Amino acid sequence: MPRRLRSGTARRRRGIAKHVQDAPLAVGPAALAREAELFDGLRRAFQATPEFPETPERTRERYVLAIESLVDYLEDIGADKAWIARLDELGWALEDLTKGELPLLLEPTRSPIHPPPAPGTSSPG
Description:
mainly alpha
């Protein structure tokens, strides 16, 4: 998947993107083609692949592909740019996690009730 928003291959900005309430209703052959592309992308993301074992990494890759299909569809129908950016951010966070990087977005939240143990001490248990 080409990097979006983070590199030179960033998602192209469209001047026609509008808020959903202002967007025209999706009707006609173009709308059907966009929906078909969305469904095809989701099918490719989630179809069974017996030749590849299902691992946590593979599952995350599937979600990244599904998010990309959804983002492309939202962009095509003129959805709010903020929605597109947020979903893209989630896709990149999942992809980074698959590469062994822990993005800030996916870091676990520490409970204020049970702070992490100080260095050199054992956790309660």
